[in-house]
Structure formats: structure tokens, C-alpha cells
Design brief:
about 230 residues, alpha/beta, 2 domains, 4-stranded mixed sheet, about 35% helix, elongated
């Protein structure tokens, strides 16, 4: 898990030996095809920006790449600049950067069986499996067009009773570009025998949407912009 540091002026300089170990860990994760590391590589290394998780894991990823990744995470443009700063006693402060930008968000659904969930999302909702992780798999991701949904196996109930349906607690929201596209998708799912928590309708503020219920009770809202 990432470590978050509260800054006042300049954050404390990290330990070089720990950073070397971190870089080696990234190389091992890439070699073992640990998919979450692909998102970090894509976000911080420009040459990987346009590649999918699978493409990133298929490409060569050297120690020098991992060291650059660690340097950029620490606020430096390169491993050489980072190590030089540390060797100088940390006197060179980190470069000032623009305000952080969030580039993507991915929803997560809790499921009891990754394989069964992947089968539902591919056969019924038209998604494809981006990856699964673990033997047997306990984590995975499905995608359709530009939308991604992470699947996390949980062996115990996450919600109490029927609170999800009573409170309409959504696991994910998917946005389409027009009301026509939304209706076409609704009809596609209707023909596939998908279970709906809420059929296609228009909200008082003009937005159109419908809600699908997956086999684990996750509620997925599909919506188009307000008219």
C-alpha cells in the first residue's frame, strides 16, 4: 500500500537503500505479472502512458525503469537526480511541481467467486476480462470500452441484510454519451436476461439511467447525460 506524507514545506528525504529495495520489488512484481503495479508504471513513466496493463506486463521492464519509477514517485525527474540529492545530504530539495492531478478512478465490486463473476460480466454485460490475479484468483478486472471494474473476492457478507437495495447503494456508475446509446444498452441487457434493480427511466433532473444487479447483489448504474 502507498505511504502518504503530510507536508509542511519539504517532505523528509527517503533512505537510499530502501529506495533501491523498492525498485527491485517493482521489478519482481512486474516479472510475476502483479497487475496493480502496471497502473503505477503507466501513471508515472510517459513511455508507458498509452499501454494497457497487459501490454505493460508483456514489455521488458528493467531495473533502470523501476529506479526511474521510484524517483518520480519521490518527486524527481530521474534516479540520477534523486541519488545525487541524497548523496549531498539531502540539500537539494525536491522540485516544486504543479498541484497533483487525478487521472483516473476505478470502481470496485465485492464478489464471492472471481471466475463466476467474470463469466457474468463477459456473457451478460459485454465486458471482457482484463486480468485475474492469484491461484485460485482472488482479484480481477473486467473492462468494456473505456470503463473498468475491479473485482475483489470477499468470503463474508460485506453489507448487512438488504441495506444495499433499500438504500440503493451503488457499486459503480457507468456513463454513456447519449440517451440513444443508453437505451440500446438497456435493450441489449434485457435480451440477455440481465436482472434489473431499476429499469430504464428518466430522473426529475433530466438524466436517464437504469440499474443492473449482478449475482453478488452489486448494483451497477448505467446513465446518460441530462437532456
Amino acid at each position: 500500500m502507498p505511504t502518504y506524507v503530510t507536508r509542511t514545506d519539504v517532505a523528509p528525504m527517503p533512505n537510499l537503500e530502501n529506495l533501491r529495495k523498492q525498485a527491485k520489488l517493482y521489478v519482481r512484481w512486474h516479472r510475476e505479472r502483479y497487475h496493480p503495479v502496471a497502473a503505477q508504471i503507466r501513471a508515472l513513466l510517459p513511455r508507458f502512458k498509452e499501454h494497457s496493463d497487459r501490454e505493460i506486463l508483456d514489455r521488458e521492464f528493467k531495473l533502470s525503469d523501476a529506479q526511474e519509477l521510484v524517483a518520480r514517485q519521490s518527486g524527481f525527474d530521474s534516479w540520477q537526480v534523486l541519488t545525487a540529492s541524497l548523496q549531498n545530504g539531502g540539500e537539494a530539495t525536491r522540485p516544486r511541481s504543479a498541484a497533483p492531478t487525478l487521472v483516473a478512478v476505478e470502481a470496485q465490486a465485492f464478489v464471492a467467486d472471481i471466475a463466476a463473476s467474470c463469466a457474468f460480466y463477459t456473457a451478460k454485460l459485454g465486458f471482457k476480462v482484463a486480468f485475474t490475479y492469484g491461484e485460485p484468483p482472488f482479484y480481477g478486472q473486467v473492462e468494456r470500452d473505456g470503463a473498468r471494474l475491479n473485482l475483489r473476492m470477499v468470503c463474508e457478507p460485506v453489507f448487512v441484510g438488504d441495506i444495499r437495495e433499500r438504500e440503493h447503494l451503488l457499486a459503480a456508475v457507468f456513463t454513456l454519451d447519449s440517451a440513444g446509446a443508453l437505451r440500446a444498452l438497456f435493450l441489449e441487457y434485457q435480451a440477455a436476461g440481465v436482472a434489473f434493480h431499476q429499469t430504464l427511466h428518466q430522473e426529475p433532473w433530466g438524466a436517464r439511467n437504469f440499474i443492473v444487479r449482478d449475482p453478488d447483489g452489486n448494483l451497477l448504474l448505467f446513465a446518460s447525460p441530462s437532456t
